[in-house]
Amino acid sequence: MKPKILTTIRDYSWSQFGADTLAGVTVALVALPLSIAIAIASGAPPAAGLVTAIVAGFLISALGGSRVQIGGPTGAFIVVVYAIIHEHGFDGLLIASVMAGLILLLAGLLRAGRLIRHVPEAVIEGFTIGIAVVIAISQLKDLAGMTGPALPADFVPKFEALWAMRQSIDPASIAMGVGAVAAILILRRLAPRVPWLVLVVVLASVATALGFAPVETVSARYGALADTFPMPSLPKISADQLVALLPSALTIAFLAGIESLLSAIVADRMIGGAHRSNAELIAQGAANIASPLFGGLPATGAIARTATNANAGGRTPVAGMIHALFVLLVLLLAAPIAGALALPALAALLVVTAWTMSEPHRWPDRLRLPKADLALLLGTAAMTVLVDLTVAIAVGTMIGLALRLSRGEIVAPRWHTPFRWGGDNRED
């Protein structure tokens, strides 16, 4: 359970520090717009995403069991966080996140890191696809510049609310949003090593600032981002709240554990390393306890940011710590620039994120799965979209384990490596 930084720091050099610094700044440039976009899509203040990248990002690197893991807010949490805020308010989310952190901390201390790999891969793929669908639909309002009340948490009422707002579609916003999605998807295929996610959002925001695209920005809707770092605090907690929020906390803990260990596996295969799963869970626990104390969101290892870090030359946890410190500097010194990001472009970024999460290139393999496994995948996806993520995970896991036992499969199969990286700067 020893953090990787204690191992890597022994023979650390100035040349490695230079490589880690370059990688950390590169990842921070990707994390900045993405963290704001995830916070907005989750129904949280935009600054909450930046706080999460700073606090959780630093702790996950400093305490984690992976050399190159990058922590922060991720797209997988959007559905969960939005639902918690909708039902319990932002204070409820903070409490649930701390509870999830305690659960993860306990799991790491009990050496439960390897147990998560017993969750059937069809369930993991199913709820990931379901989350991707919900994220994409949730971004249609900002993508098209529609005006109206906040969208409901449930999927069908969300569709009904979007339909009711259809008369308010803004031509400039939808042109920017659709154009940004197309530009990112096309350009990253032509030049995969260029961070098009960042460049397209920046160019769209510059066009807005110069008056070429009259669309809404982050600061126009939410006010100017504070240029100070918040002091730690936590809302009052009652026993009734703890009971009501326990299912949400378990879901956050499960997602954080799954995504962080998947990300660590990806990192291992990219750099030829070996992560420490229990140290990783302890780091996730500490991060999810600390992040809400400063008003941040739930956090986990971010697969694409981790891969970006490895591709950029990061080889020790110092890169992730520098990434967090660079985001902090931007918050303190350049908050107005972050507030100038165009909302349709941020929505486009998350639509592309959802597309990437769904791993469309894997459908030929999925359709060749045994019928029971394919049904489990599709059923989990449908439950995630139409019912509830917690129900989808619980029911899907029970059915999946029963299928595995009926086949006599005692040893958990290896998870596949998510996404086709090969230097492709895709986000999660």
UniProtKB/TrEMBL annotation:
<feature type="transmembrane region" description="Helical">
    <location>
        <begin position="194"/>
        <end position="213"/>
    </location>
</feature>
<keyword id="KW-1133">Transmembrane helix</keyword>
<protein>
    <submittedName>
        <fullName>SulP family inorganic anion transporter</fullName>
    </submittedName>
</protein>
<dbReference type="GO" id="GO:0055085">
    <property type="term" value="P:transmembrane transport"/>
</dbReference>
<feature type="transmembrane region" description="Helical">
    <location>
        <begin position="169"/>
        <end position="187"/>
    </location>
</feature>
<feature type="transmembrane region" description="Helical">
    <location>
        <begin position="325"/>
        <end position="355"/>
    </location>
</feature>
<feature type="transmembrane region" description="Helical">
    <location>
        <begin position="70"/>
        <end position="86"/>
    </location>
</feature>
<feature type="domain" description="SLC26A/SulP transporter">
    <location>
        <begin position="18"/>
        <end position="378"/>
    </location>
</feature>
<feature type="transmembrane region" description="Helical">
    <location>
        <begin position="242"/>
        <end position="267"/>
    </location>
</feature>
<dbReference type="Pfam" id="PF00916">
    <property type="entry name" value="Sulfate_transp"/>
</dbReference>
<dbReference type="InterPro" id="IPR001902">
    <property type="entry name" value="SLC26A/SulP_fam"/>
</dbReference>
<feature type="transmembrane region" description="Helical">
    <location>
        <begin position="122"/>
        <end position="140"/>
    </location>
</feature>
<keyword id="KW-0812">Transmembrane</keyword>
<feature type="transmembrane region" description="Helical">
    <location>
        <begin position="375"/>
        <end position="403"/>
    </location>
</feature>
<feature type="transmembrane region" description="Helical">
    <location>
        <begin position="47"/>
        <end position="63"/>
    </location>
</feature>
<feature type="transmembrane region" description="Helical">
    <location>
        <begin position="21"/>
        <end position="41"/>
    </location>
</feature>
<feature type="transmembrane region" description="Helical">
    <location>
        <begin position="92"/>
        <end position="110"/>
    </location>
</feature>
<dbReference type="InterPro" id="IPR011547">
    <property type="entry name" value="SLC26A/SulP_dom"/>
</dbReference>
<keyword id="KW-0472">Membrane</keyword>
<dbReference type="GO" id="GO:0016020">
    <property type="term" value="C:membrane"/>
</dbReference>
